[in-house]
Amino acid sequence: xxxxxxxxxxxxxxxxxxxxxxxxxxxxxxxxxxxxxxxxxxxxxxxxxxxxxxxxxxxxxxxxxxxxxxxxxxxxxxxxxxxxxxxxxxxxxxxxxxxxxxxxxxxxxxxxxxxxxxxxxxxxxxxxxxxxxxxxxxxxxxxxxxxxxxxxxxxxxxxxxxxxxxxxxxxxxxxxxxxxxxxxxxxxxxxxxxxxxxxxxxxxxxxxxxxxxxxxxxxxxxxxxxxxxxxxxxxxxxxxxxxxxxxxxxxxxxxxxxxxxxxxxxxxxxxxxxxxxxxxxxxxxxxxxxxxxxxxxxxxxxxxxxxxxxxxxxxxxxxxxxxxxxxxxxxxxxxxxxxxxxxxxxxxxxxxxxxxxxxxxxxxxxxxxxxxxxxxxxxxxxxxxxxxxxxxxxxxxxxxxxxxxxxxxxxxxxxxxxxxxxxxxxxxxxxxxxxxxxxxxxxxxxxxxxxxxxxxxxxxxxxxxxxxxxxxxxxxxxxxxxxxxxxxxxxx
Length: 492
Ligand code: F6P
Prior knowledge:
The protein is α/β, with parallel strands linked by helices. Helices cover 45% and strands 12% of the residues. The chain is built from 19 helices and eleven strands. The longest helix is centred in the first third of the chain and has 22 residues. The protein is globular, with a radius of gyration of 24 Å. The termini are far apart. Bound molecules: 6-O-phosphono-beta-D-fructofuranose (F6P). 6-O-phosphono-beta-D-fructofuranose binds next to loops.
């Protein structure tokens, strides 16, 4: 791998410091964070405090936790922390009351207010789908009390599949949309209502529940106010799984599990609030991300979950990081002189080892990798499975760093390739809450270091407005010849 001249040699860093493995590993929220196989030197670690103060990280954190208007381009606070107990008293009280309302509706479902309920069709997209889908898939494999199906794509095949094993007579439909205007979600909602109707459900609207920051729009859609679960406008879509957007997870996993999820996140919030920059794990991780992006030119970062239960983690984190920090201008609107956040990609191990790891071991890119594994397995198979899974995860990190000499250039591995490992003790609601909060804070810290606003997403909005303009034959005239030809070819 051609390397930036200043890239230190990891093997040498370990040789020079016998305590490196322990001094660059930390414990938090039932997780071990091992950052020792990243190119972090003691000299760099000594700059963390000044990096934080130069970027104004302390003030930014104060403003975030106080619920001040830090999403300046949209004139809003970013109050997802209030969902787990941090923020202005009013916002925390409101979030708590709204959780109670959500739990009350769950009690009503359980008490039979909707008749016999066996399943939930959750309709939403982006931040209104990825969180609940991840939680239910990760935590609800064994004891899920209801069948949960999540549909996001406007492609009818996605809805076909989602309803294929749901019984319309015993299914409730949760329509999750912060704005309650998103085309995909409203299209899928209309089709789901038609599905209920066509299958003999007398009052399909009576089976709908809205999860939204625009309650009035949900009521106008035809959902009774008693079945609208609101959350605050100041909670961003990709930060919203802690709010009523998490309804299907709270229903399927139980309200106690949902409370533990919030507690896990609160634990990381407290850490971020209290730790100095050189001991603040999300800040250290974000500063390391900047080191690779800015000094060493790494354009991507890969995350591999060595646990099938976390197979939806990478898509979740892709939205969190890339929608938040994929920006070209600073908070003040000036062009950035540093790269925006790295492209996040990844998958699950060990599958990915036999597909994309070739490039990681021998490709020419510098590509920091993150391994996420869970010490305690949960499968019904021989313990050899989980043991091999974990050993594979650790072996990959070791091989990326160590490399291997050979006289044959095709069989040579340069090594000195960076990886970080997060090892969870168990996968439970509290730990997954802490894990996701860690990534949220890391994303925020990286935004502060870059100098951008992580809470808007104007890039996606251009695509949304163009998609509706293109549906209008007159509006199409303004489109380029290539696009017009494609529309014609498809017969639209
Ligand atoms: O695509 C942009 C986006 O606004 C995401 O940020 C959001 O999570 C998603 O669309 C869904 O939006 P809504 O929850 O308003 O339907």
